[in-house]
Amino acid sequence: MARSDTRTAEKKPRTRRRKILLAGAATVVALALAGGGFAFWTYRHLEGNLDTVDIDKALGDDRPAPLPTGAQDILVIGSDSRSGDNGSLAGGDVGGTARSDTAMVVHIPQGRANATVVSIPRDTLVTRPTCTTSKGRQLGEAQRVMFNSIYTAGGPTCVVKTVESMTGLRMNHYVEIDFAGFKGLVDAMGGVQVTVDAPINDKYSGLNLTPGTHTLDGTQSLAFVRTRHGVGDGSDLGRIGLQQKFILAVLSQLQRQDTLSSPTKLYGVADAATKSLTTDAGLGSLPDLVTFAQSMKGLKPSRMETLMLPVAYDRVDPNRVVPAQPQDGELWAALRENKPIPAEAKKSPAHGTSA
Fold it and tell me: DSSP string spanning 139-170?
């Protein structure tokens, strides 16, 4: 990660060197950000940007035990909220409240040298366990509900509870980013460079790309990770490959030496990153993010495996999918046991061809 030193015009007697991690995506994932030399007022400003939710307090002890291997699991959610600054983005107001537009489980084994990112299709039909909403209301168990509706019904705590029930993995951390935050982060970075092998033409999102390499601004990037009519079979499954491609592109760009060499750009990225995030209480302060960032410094994008939760088309409603068996069970068992994922467990009967 690049480091950059800066002095503020206000002559403070001391400065604090901090390294900040943004774990996430476009949706969005985990995104890594490092910097240093922030003056005290800058530190306080960035600290004040962070929003948190106390997942541990809300869920209590009825959860999977932490893995004895020392691995970390992070649930990364991209929210499609149209409130506030999000109102004019990605098609504007579509009615209703926010849903989880993108969901990824990031599994990081002990040693933090590699990671596995598993995308959960938002149209997956799952069982939502009994859970307590963010406002303290009890929700009973519900079967065959769409995964992305759980955020609407119960907020982050119910989403975490559902994912833990599905996977048998305890989510050590939770990271959420909304449309406006995603756009602001990309624009602060000066755009993100992506390469596509086939043309993308989506009249709904307005995204039109020729084969080759393109530098996308925040609005274009948002369309890129959300487009589905312009790729594959037009389903949610087709765009998952684009989302994963974009996350790796962001991580690679942030890790290049010149990306954060400018103090002005460094502050802009840090400000946009912290404004864009809602995290669990364990990542809810800059010191917590510093510690987490330091533990991840050996992780390279080239050592991140990305895949989609194996799903099959639902027999009742072919427009929905369900976790495929036995692949689903084998995938999560391999992560729980810190073993390589069997090749067969990565094969999804419903694949949705992507660009």
Answer: E--EEEEETTHHHHHHHHHHHHHHHHHHHS--
**φ and ψ of 212, to 5 deg:** 130, -165
Q: Which one, of 247, 245, 250, 277, lies nearest residue 189 by Cα?
A: 250
Hey, what are 140's tokens? Answer: 């009973």
Q: How far is CA 170 from CA 59, 108, 195, 343, in A?
A: 11, 12, 35, 24
Below-70 pLDDT ranges, the chain: 1-41, 80-100, 229-230, 232-235, 257-262, 290, 352-355
Question: In angstroms, rounded to a whole number, what is the distance separating the alpha carbons of residues 123 and 150?
Answer: 11
**pLDDT tens digits, one per residue of 119-154:** 999 999 999 999 988 778 899 999 999 999 999 999
> Measured between alpha carbons, how far is 148 from 303 in angstroms, rounded to an integer?
28
Q: Can you give the pTM of this predicted structure?
A: 0.81
Joined together, the tokens standing for residue 308 give: 């989609």
